[in-house]
Amino acid sequence: MSEPALEVRFRGGGFVARRKRGVGITVFIVLVLLAEWGTRTGVISALTLPRPSDVALTFKELYESGLLFKHLLPSLSRLAVGATMGALAGIAVGLLIGLFSLARAGLVPLVAALFPIPKIALLPLFVIWFGIDEMSKYALIAFGTFTPTVVATYAAVDNVDRTLIRMGQSFGLKWRSIVWKIVLPGAMPGILSGLRISLTIAIILLVAAEMLGAEYGIGAYILQAGSLYDLERLFAGVVILSVMGVLVSAAIAAVERRVLRWRV
């Protein structure tokens, strides 16, 4: 008699990340509940951390008074304009460096010199150049987004499989077709990963820019709360920034799912 067939489990998953719904929200809720318990029982000092329930009440007051959108909308506008300028310029320069040897020889040393400069330290210089109004804030955010995007883009182009490029050349594809059909799709995962980092840096620089010469904005709101030692308002501003970071990351993830559907 023949032995019964045994089921062989598939072992070729290739470290593909599996979505675990609800785990992130659960962790967040547990941390909030622990903070609420600690502040109510006195384990955590009220001078160190406000009660999450008080922060929630502050959010409610912000929303009802209309101040939430008075501060949020200018910040979103500055972030959108500055980050878009920096990201588009960074991707363009990164592609130039990745595709052309002359551009690589001329621009890589310049990018290497600019990259380690603390961008916040340049804010007074941008104020001198562009004034204390919106343009200096756009410039700071754009410059802070530009350099990491350049590095991520040309590194992504360098990591494209050269075997695929040689294969395209052997089949007689034109240079433009190789770039459009091989190089850009192969570099896109690295470019999008770099944008995650760049846009996070943009949020940090947004706060720094708004702390100087801005009447409205999340950074100005946090500065006002800190000067008054109002922890509830200060943490409300920090939570808004965290939510902005999560939404930016979710937007990049949505673009990845749409653009990188070919990737298993």
TrEMBL record:
Keywords of the record: Cell membrane, Membrane, Transmembrane, Transmembrane helix, Transport
ABC transmembrane type-1 domain ranges (all copies): 72-252
Membrane-spanning ranges: 21-39, 79-100, 107-132, 138-157, 201-222, 234-255
Signal peptide positions on this chain: none
Mode of membrane association: Multi-pass membrane protein
Coarse class of the protein's main subcellular location: membrane
One Pfam short name: BPD_transp_1
Entry keyword annotation includes Protein biosynthesis: no
Protein origin, superkingdom: Bacteria
GO biological process, one term: alkanesulfonate transmembrane transport
Keyword Transferase (UniProt): no
GO cellular component: plasma membrane
Compartments, as annotated in UniProt: Cell membrane
PANTHER family hit by this protein: ALIPHATIC SULFONATES TRANSPORT PERMEASE PROTEIN SSUC-RELATED, ALKANE SULFONATE ABC TRANSPORTER-RELATED, MEMBRANE SUBUNIT
UniProt function note: Probably part of an ABC transporter complex. Probably responsible for the translocation of the substrate across the membrane.
Assigned protein family: Belongs to the binding-protein-dependent transport system permease family.
Protein name: NitT/TauT family transport system permease protein
